[in-house]
Prior knowledge:
Largest sheet: 7 strands, antiparallel
Number of helices: 3
Order of helices and strands: HEEEEEEEHEEHEEEEEEEEEEEEEEE
Strand content: over 45%
Number of strands: 24
Distance between the termini: 37 Å
Helix content: under 10%
Amino acid sequence: MKPFRIFLLGAFFSLLVAGVGISQTPEFLFKSGEDGYQCFRIPAIITTQSGTLLAFAEGRKKDCGDAGDIDLVLKRSEDQGKTWSALQVVWSDSANTCGNPAPVLDARTGNIVLLSTWNLGADHEWQIINGSSQNTRRVYVLTSTDEGRSWSAPREITTAVKQPNWTWYATGPVNGIQIRQGKYKGRLVIPCDHIEAGSKQYYSHTIHSDDGGQNWQLGGSTPTDQVNECTVAELSKGNLILNMRNYNQQRIRQTAISADGGHTWSALRGDTSLVEPVCQASLIRLYQQGRKPVLAFSNPAHAKQRVNMTVRLSYDEGQTWSRSLVLHQGPAAYSNLVELGRDQLACLFEAGEKHAYEGILFRLIGMQEFR
């Protein structure tokens, strides 16, 4: 073959794989091994009232494991993700675990309310579940009144939102919402999950605040188990949809509806369009697409492996998903979507070339990219 043809074929192949994100070296917003942390996991992202992006993560000191010395960290962007601040530590408690960021904006005050969980660094999840841990899983709230530049001291709310017979507990990890219409307008809602002592059954549930995050109440749990990490969005008339990680044999997401602000949840319904490898996901409503709700959903869209980070759109309140976009075909895991404007959204997600925890990527998405 002539050298010129070899060059053309090579150039074509390079463009092809670059288009699907296979051969490009990822540009991580949080890169494992940097800033004093061996691993970054558990992304969460929201926009402030002025449009500043707040990207949260867990900074894991020693490895990518879920236990040990873990801090809540943050980077800010005031230009829609073009540039980012240096890493900021939001909450560190010696060698203990501070994690599961679940931020929400209170549009009435502009405050950012951040729900999180804490446990002793020496306690592992299995020990907390079986009751052999030194302490337990606790729930805290932090608040920023200056768009994430500074934060209040963590304030414990465990007794208000956790039943005495619950062991493991997780907030998010994903954004919360503020209900915009209907009877419960203004309510802050955070998706959560828990495990019961004794039965060890695991459920999704929500917690909520009607006073801007000062006081928190326990909402409803799902009527059946085998679901946990979940994400919540508002539908029409103030109804809510809960979308959940699922452990039954069907590798699909489970959903439930609430017509009472999260006090109760309907029977679970499997969404056969949303395949999953048992993983966290993100669901948001895009408010600038018109009066009818447009939902966006992200997860590693594969029945067995954490690969193929995909964003889907629904124009009928999650009944069908008519448009989609693959962000990263390789290893990928947890994610969080955020709306940036009428024609743009973004995804903050775990990904890598060899494994999903090489770092956390930020990807801008134009609405015209969906097919």
